[in-house]
């Protein structure tokens, strides 16, 4: 039974990016590793930013400009510049809508020493990290109530 508990604890530590101990908080996600004591953490949370498509939008503008240039200033037949433009538009749209994630998520922490750590997390891990942050905030609230009582 003890072996099973320790194995489950080991399994949870591997899966969970945020590990909460009685007096400290450890974050291990991909290559980012750090730990803080509860008293050192000033603010913790998730940041949600809308994804920017600068590369795709730029490619779309370049293809459009090239098609207009060919249409206005060259003696090419319509087929010679419309078909490549349509193919380029198709590729750009396929690249743009290939990733269904509309937002990029970041985990941030501010400490009492005015340091700020911001780590990009995958969209699929957002729910798990959010639940762990909520659990940490509940634990911190309980600790603050115990200190004042």
Describe this structure in words.
This protein has 149 residues and is α+β, with helices and mostly antiparallel strands. Helix content is 51%, strand content 27%. It has 4 helices and 6 strands; from the N terminus they run H-E-E-E-E-H-H-E-E-H. The strands form 2 sheets. It has a 3-stranded antiparallel sheet, covered by helices on one side. Strands 4-5-6 form a 3-stranded antiparallel sheet, with helices on one face. Helix 2 runs antiparallel to helix 3.
Task: Write a brief structural summary.
The protein has 149 residues and is of the alpha+beta class. It is built from 4 helices and 6 strands. The chain has helices at 2-15, 54-73, 78-96, 126-148, and strands at 18-20, 24-29, 32-37, 41-50, 103-111, 116-121.
Gross geometry: rod-shaped
The value of Rg in angstroms is 25 Å
In percent terms, what proportion of residues is strand? 25-35%
Given as residue ranges, the uncertain stretches (5+ residues, pLDDT < 50) are 1-14
Q: Compute the average pLDDT.
A: 83
The helix/strand series, from N terminus to C terminus, equals HEEEEHHEEH
């Amino acid at each position: 039974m003890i072996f099973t508990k320790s194995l489950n604890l080991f399994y949870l530590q591997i899966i969970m990016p945020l590990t909460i101990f009685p007096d400290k908080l450890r974050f291990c996600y991909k290559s980012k590793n750090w730990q803080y004591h509860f008293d050192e953490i000033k603010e913790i949370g998730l940041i949600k930013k809308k994804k920017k498509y600068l590369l795709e939008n730029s490619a779309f503008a370049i293809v459009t400009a090239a098609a207009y240039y060919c249409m206005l200033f060259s003696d090419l037949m319509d087929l010679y510049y419309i078909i490549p433009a349509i193919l380029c538009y198709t590729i750009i749209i396929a690249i743009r809508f290939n990733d269904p994630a509309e937002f990029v998520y970041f985990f941030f922490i501010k400490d009492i020493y005015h340091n700020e750590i911001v780590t990009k997390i995958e969209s699929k891990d957002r729910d798990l990290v959010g639940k762990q942050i909520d659990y940490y905030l509940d634990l911190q609230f309980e600790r603050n109530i115990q200190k004042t009582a």
